[in-house]
Amino acid sequence: MPRLKEPTPLRKAAYGRLVTHFVNYFDRLSIDCRLSDIRRSVAQIKGYVYPSLPPSLYNEVCSEFLHKFLWIQRDRYENRPGCHNRAALEVLMDIDIVGLHCGAEIMKNVDHEDAHRFRRLSILKLDHPWTNVGTKSLGNFELQDLTELHYSYLCVDRDLEVIGTTCPKLLLLDIEGAKSVTDRGLRALRPCSELRILSIVGCKVSDNGVNQLLNVNEKITEFNVGLHTFPRQRRTFDVLSRPKTLVCPYMRRFSIKSDSITNAQLLAIVELFPNLTHLRINGEIEGNLSTLNRLKELEELNFVISKYDYYLPMENVNELLASIGKNITMLNLMELKQEELDFLYKLCVNIEFLTFCRVKYLSPNSLIVPSFKKLKTLKYSFAYSGQQILEFSRMPKLEDLYFFPITKPNYHLIQMIAALMLDDEKFPNLESVYAPAVADGVRESINQRAAERNINFFFQPSTPSY
């Protein structure tokens, strides 16, 4: 029996209508160039809506409104006056919103002179390449409640000095690609004693600077596990070169990127970070991966290969999984054959997230995905040859399914994916399907069929994120 479509919860529907009303109303005011009316409407929202909602919900509603209001201009290839966009942002200014979250899309429209008007900031993202907040303006923000900061590219040592003196609650700092950050900036972070997550890929720092930071900030649990790989960025530090006596027992998530992954590097990982739960490896595997079976708490393995013509040595991987497979809950692999997929099924009985690909036409037969009992998310990249792409056994727990075609998608492929995913017997708990973008008419048809079965069907670019 197909699952009946569940009605939208009343509260969610009400707030959704509120966001839609704000977007349409402000869009009309902006088209008519009525800045004074925009400011008056912002004042009304802050006067009537803000007192009626919990702070976190007000933040959510207004952030969604601003995202859609700013996005429709891009979607229609229209530009509103900058003063209109800045006026709309004032719905989040000059009021106390505990846990205030300001994303990059919002911050790129902020005038740096208004930075201090965002109170109780908790999450701040300044990683948009067009952000209007200059490097000398970070100190203008109220940062005493900040727990998360994303400040790629434009961040400099002076900014980290501001962070070190004003952000005692900081938990996450992402400054990937900040080429001007040096050891001086890292030293300034020492007062951030609560720092847990740090990403400094692409920064101009040394082994000594990184080692000193890890020695002082002992609570760091995640290091350099970001989305970006910066293949052309010259590496200036190697955290694995630190003395083996300087063990980091708190480290839980670690990423290594190197042209080749050697036995010495694998041994350094297990000796320096014995309590890892997540390991991301980007490079050609030369060492024996079985060294990693000493990581007794390892649950997540993420292999990311930058070179297109490199194939992961599955015999090496399988030897490791033979000893730790039962502990693995997340696995990101590359090319898989049927026998390798079956091998994973037998060993990784607790796996919940699986990513793999099939970029070569190795066989005219489609891959058959075994019935992974606990699998919740499956991501599959493939080169479409006109044949059936995957066959599935029953997937009792699967909730999210992603397809990333390497070749250009067509109507036949999308219809095949839609038919496959609307099988209620094989996918009793399926909630979301992510497929490549297609023409509007096809998208509307598939969305309607998916909605009837209470499944969210999303169309997206063909590039997966690891």
Give a short summary of the structure.
With 466 residues, the chain is an alpha/beta fold. The protein has helices at 10-31, 35-49, 55-75, 82-88, 104-107, 157-166, 183-188, 207-216, 263-272, 314-324, 338-347, 411-421, 440-452; strands spanning 100-102, 121-125, 148-150, 172-174, 197-199, 222-223, 253-261, 278-285, 300-303, 330-335, 353-358, 367-369, 377-382, 390-392, 400-405, 432-436, 456-460.
Descriptive overview:
The protein has helices spanning 10-31, 35-49, 55-75, 82-88, 104-107, 157-166, 183-188, 207-216, 263-272, 314-324, 338-347, 411-421, 440-452, and strands at 100-102, 121-125, 148-150, 172-174, 197-199, 222-223, 253-261, 278-285, 300-303, 330-335, 353-358, 367-369, 377-382, 390-392, 400-405, 432-436, 456-460. With 466 residues, it is α/β, with parallel strands linked by helices. The model has no long low-confidence stretch (mean pLDDT 85). It has 3 domains: 15-72 and 84-96, no CATH class; 99-109 and 117-130 and 138-246, Leucine-rich repeat, LRR (right-handed beta-alpha superhelix), CATH 3.80.10; 329-465. The two termini are 35 Å apart. The longest helix is centred in the N-terminal third of the chain and has 22 residues, at 10-31. The protein has 13 helices and 17 strands.
What would you report as the Rg, rounded to the nearest angstrom?
A: 25 Å
Count of separate DSSP helical elements = 13
According to DSSP, the number of beta strands is: 17
Output the structural class. alpha/beta
- State the end-to-end CA separation: 35 Å
- Outline the low-pLDDT stretches: none
* Helix-strand sequence: HHHHEHEEHEHEHEEHEEHEHEEEEEHEHE
Shape: globular
Number of domains: 3
Helix content: 25-40%
